[in-house]
Queue: 3 jobs
Job 1
Amino acid sequence: MRGIPLSSALVVEHLDVLVTMDESRREISDAWIAVEDGAITGLGTGTACLGAERRIDGRGLVAMPGLINTHHHFFQTLTRVLPAAQGLGILEWLAANYAFWARIDEEAVHTTACVAIGELLLSGCTTSSDHLYAYPKASGGAIAMLEAEIAAAAELGIRFHPTRGAIDVSLEAGGSPPPELVEDTDSVLESMEEAVLKFNDPSPGSMVRIGLAPCSLTICSERLMIESGDLARRLGVTRHTHVAEVVEEEDYCAEVYGQRPVERLSELGWLGEDVWLAHVVHADTSDINRLATTGTAVSHCPTSNMRLGSGAAPILEMCDANVTVALGVDGSASNDSGNMLAEARQAMLLSRVSAGGNRLMAPRHALRLATVGGAAALKRDDIGVLATGRRADIAFYSLQGVAAAGTEHDPVAALILAPPAAAAHVMVDGRFAVWNGHLTVDEEPIVRAHRDLVRRILR
């Protein structure tokens, strides 16, 4: 009992299984976990012999670290299931969406963030990044829009890694976005520094950390890529961008630079332990070796890649090379959902198809990508694992009812093979953000505000 507290604010006990995701990959039956001041203060099996202000019966529940989403575009809930974009590849899909994204403002950012975050929480996600790169000229500016989504994250209670994205190459200059979404490079760099100084909290257990995220090689200038990288290193924050998502990008880089996309990032100083890259679908052995050598992480977005016909990333090969692989749901306009548990299932299934049946990703491997992988990609050593001293970010899943009958054979694998529709309870930093399958904030005003926003933007 050494190291176990005499009392705690909260104890959840008699859990069917507690999945620690620690290095020994312990899974504890008839488990208990204690929480105090937002941190895990103890865990074990049997009855917790300590006092507690609140005790919760965990029978029928599987507990695991909260899931970590490493790539999203919250504002894209605005054009979820947009009819004009349902059957298109990514370039035509972008063209169909840009007109609507060019109309967003701070209100739209806040409203869409509430929807996206609420959906993530309900699936058991406790930490999310967001890549906000649409800052129309008519809006109040990037800082105000970032502040709007940070406020939404605080209201719903999720741990948040927003990134200050940017586009500075217009359609006329060879890019694809409309003029409303293209920013001046000097203004972007100035705003990036302001965002870090105003919002970033590097302290252990922090709820908000800022990253810098020029959108991609094809719609960001060489100067923006290089100088934003320099700025991130000077300020000590992480970096994020899209790369190797579609074959057209590979063709573009070959024609313009005589390089592969990942090779081009390397030349620009955009690989390293402070970088995590979205997609990396079209990667060969040389690309994977570059990622492994530099410690660059990858955010795998299987549903979006399938939805847009982009392809299947070589995730198993990356894992074999010790590349850090995490998961992301991507924007709701290319996924149409924000369910992190479903994304882990998709990652497992797609890897099995793309590997030709020769290699089969295990369910627990998919869960590690969604937890340990996500924490590593975001450079967090305080989440992703259930252990004493870590932050109390915990997802509790119920495997009850007809749909779960038979899952008692292996309730942990069942989270991927027969996943519940939603988490039963979700705790972030020791506070419940989801209880009995519902957000602890009122959901109806969020849904109503989003419905009104869609009508306004479409009109």
Note: The chain has two domains: 7-65+383-436, 67-377.
Job 2
Amino acid sequence: MGIFKKIFGGNNNDGKDEEVVVFYAEQNEMLKRANEEAQNNFKYFWRELYWEYKRIIPAHNFAMVKIPFGQKMKGHEEPIFEHMWINNINFDGEFIYGELVNVPNQLTNVKKGDTVKRKINEIGDWLMCIQGEVYGGFTIQAMRSQMNDAQREDHDNAWGLDFGNPDEVLLVYQQKEHPENLLEHPMSKNMADQVREFFKTNPDELQKTDGIGHTFLHNEAIAGNLTSTRIMLELGADKNTKSNSGKTALDYAKEMGWNHIVEVLA
């Protein structure tokens, strides 16, 4: 709420306290919707990051997730919350892991560099920059939509980024030029021959599991990679294999909302 007070002024209400209450209630509802959109679309963030980790030459400028941190503090009836960013993100289909980027303003129970573990429904936003283009930033765009042109310019200059149209949130790389990227990451399709050759040469790899019981099929389903999922099934991957938490690749695909993966695994 502090950002809105700074931008619009919290005291100049000419005694119209009720209007101020309504205004902040609307902002809270707007940010709540932005939080929900960020959570619902986190799958795109992870899919892009999944492929970024496979690149020899990095393409991303940065990738971060925003999370609320709370602490009950002396003199306050309610916990104090600060919404801060984490980076160095990893995701196992259930938990998001990262390191705190910000230095807390008031909180003393966390510090910059701390390792964080949260579920998707606990995040407030995600933000990614690829070759200068911004993706995500749902809460940021919600706030920018309430600013005038000069305020948006100041905001973007502070970030060193052009967030573009405040009424638009991009989800995937080159979304406007290639809307088909919403269905599948281009690297998933481009790597088809290499994936097929690898598993034909190393068939035992299809059934190998990592430390949390994930097969390659689990990980591809979590990332929404249709082409590689089909190839693995064709070459004999067992879709009924369960992770250490008792989940199949289909379970993860359903939880992530990858309907096109659900169709081939069901």
Note: Residues 17-40 form the longest helix (24 residues).
Job 3
Amino acid sequence: MHKVDIAYKCKNILGEGITFSKKDQTLYWLDINNTSKLHRFNLINEQKDSFEIPEIVTATSIKSENEIILVSNNGINLFNTNSKKFQRILNVENKLLHTRSNDGASDVMGRLWFGTMQNNFDKDGESIPIKENIGKLYRVDKDNIITTVEDNLGIPNTFVWSPDNKNFYFTDTLDGNIMKYDYDVETGNLSNKQFFANFDRGFPDGSTMDTDGCLWNCRWGGSCLVRYTPSGEVDQVIEMPVENITNCVFGGKDLKTLFITSAKNPGKNQHELDGSLFSINLNYQGLEDHKSKIHLT
């Protein structure tokens, strides 16, 4: 049994987009809404702060010590944590009011990958049903060329690569299957799409990878985390104290602490820990998230 600790009782509406900077031992994650928040948590001095962002911001990728790439409903943005300047870099689906961004991450070459979906927030920030598969999977190369990789998606999630960078893992949460692709490091092209894994509790949300090549997947509505072996077999299931588990990343000096975001439950089964940041100390070591190398001009 793994002990699940409460790292921060932050009461996020929709905690997501978590990443970790090993250099300065700092976690970043988002609380997604029409006006979102970027949270920052330094593990050394335990200082916590947050920044209000005036858009639906859903994914993060560290650019430099004080700069972080934020994917929003209007495109790709740069946020400086010192000056608090929020700057648009690229417009993506910015004229489509019925879509928003979702999960994303950078690959080993610094390309930015992210997905879009039907906007499921009303004007008051309340959740509305997702009825259309109008989302897309995008790749932004270092020269800022944007490529549509897939379309007709419901909720794009899980942007992780194998330790040798030969495979890419991705899921459409509404479909329920985690998929595996062959990944060309030099070109960023995907091929040989095939089924990787499924599970009978909840829906697949965000994921991270460990050095053994095992994928850790958060289960939305499933109150658990699942570790899959490289062959897609369920290795273990970790029970969580809340229902909606959204995303995770390895952090700490040895990258052996798993940090997990969560979201509130709009239904009847609400819990006082909904939206908290959790942590689990493990005997597994994670892979550090790649940094973004896309151009800023």
Note: The chain has a mean pLDDT of 96.
